[in-house]
Amino acid sequence: MLDAAPPVTPQPESERPNLGTRLMRRKPVEQLVAEGGQGDGGSLRRSLTMWQLTMISIGATLGTGIFVVLGEATPLAGPAVAISFVIAGLTALFSALSYAELAGSIPVSGSSYSYSYATMGEVIAWICGWCLVLEYGVSVAAVAVGWGEYLNELLDGTIGVTIPASVSAPLGEGGFINLPALIVILLAMVFLMGGAKESARVNTIMVVIKIATLVLFCVIGFMGIKAGNYAPLAPLGVTGISAAAATLFFSYIGFDAASTAGEEAKNPKKDLPRAIMLSLLIVTVLYCLVALVAVGAMPWQDFEGTEAALAQIMKDVTGHSFWGVVLAAGAVVAIASVVFAVLYGQTRILFAMSRDGLVPKVFAKVDERTGTPKANVVIVSLFCGVLAAFIPLGELANATSIGTLFAFALVNVAVVILRYKRPDMPRTFRVALFPVTPILGFAFCAYMMFSLPSKTWVYFGGWMIAGLVIYFFYGMRRSSLATAEK
């Protein structure tokens, strides 16, 4: 029988950590890994294979940029929009290498939040986690809004009706509620509550459908390419390419989703790095191919104000509405899978933050039968659903890019810190050309952040202030490390 734990004697006021020490307290890597999978009332189940992890990352990434954001970025860069995709992809690649190393070393659910906690301290971890809440939560809502546009295209092509604006747009944008956006989020919630393994199967089916749809677009769209549409290549210059790349970075949000599944992977140390790199490669190749075909088949000036641009191109090239309907159906599935996978990532990040005491414990409560944090899934889904249904997102959607870039920058810093502080720690993947690669990753993120408009920075600043207020009045006093010091 274990001996009874000795009574805890409160520290004298003079011996308690000062504010600076409390802000920079770190959670050791070994403690993070030891706590992995454990929630309030149960534990997450290790059931995901490398291919399922890859499909989660592709599911969270592939779709938004090419089906929705392409129409916004092309008027900024012209035919050089494919170069903008490459720049955004390179920015993501440098950070992906850092993610791969940390995911193999610290295989837990918190993604960059947990990596920051182990290397830079609690307040930086909170800031990173708060950025991830913005990245995942708001992007779920923004993507759900885009889903409604392609759903209307599909309904118009099949039964000749569209959803009235009064129930397909939020207040301030010509309607009262965006019902399609709410419905797709609630559907994702239902599937997520079934368990990680079951959710991964549904996600894999949707990913296969959307990859097939984009390949079909490339085959048909290739027949409509006109060489003249590529000239001039960069009508708005380097500035336009950079601005488009910053906008398109939104389409790479989600490649890190595999790292949020660290506590549900069967072999996380090996499979997480592979899934992150493989998913980014597949997504970047598809993005660039589709962008090249799209601007070749439609003059870049015609993209401005065009909703469901890819479906329109399919109609124009073939002369038949059937192929536009097929593309719209694929887009409906594709964007739904983004909502599904990103919502999954959001719940797992909040799970990790809750276990650390930085957000309420309800987010770490695990259902014993399904092995999923059901209450977490319901709360997050309802929040994102209300956001998508009633709130005009506007510039807040762009703020997800800056929040993501900030989190990615911290991951590059975390790799450097952990290499120098824990050089002998086992690593299943190592960043090549260290420390040049993470430094370049940080520099690319900073460059992309400063390419975003000033209004985006204002929204981001407001989000950060709100987050710090919550931390100082709630998280700092209730974190598990804080309670251990009492």
UniProtKB/TrEMBL annotation:
Extract the ranges annotated as region (Disordered). 1-20
Highest taxon, organism lineage: Bacteria
Q: Which compartments is it annotated to reside in?
A: Membrane
> Does the record's keyword annotation contain Nucleotide-binding?
no
Q: Where are the transmembrane segments?
A: 53-70, 76-102, 123-147, 176-195, 207-227, 233-255, 276-300, 320-345, 375-393, 399-420, 432-450, 456-474
What are the alphabetically sorted keywords of the record?
Membrane, Transmembrane, Transmembrane helix
Q: How does the protein's chain sit in the membrane according to the entry?
A: Multi-pass membrane protein
Q: What is this protein called?
A: Amino acid transporter
What is the originating organism of this protein? Streptomyces chryseus
Q: What is the lineage of its organism?
A: Bacteria, Bacillati, Actinomycetota, Actinomycetes, Kitasatosporales
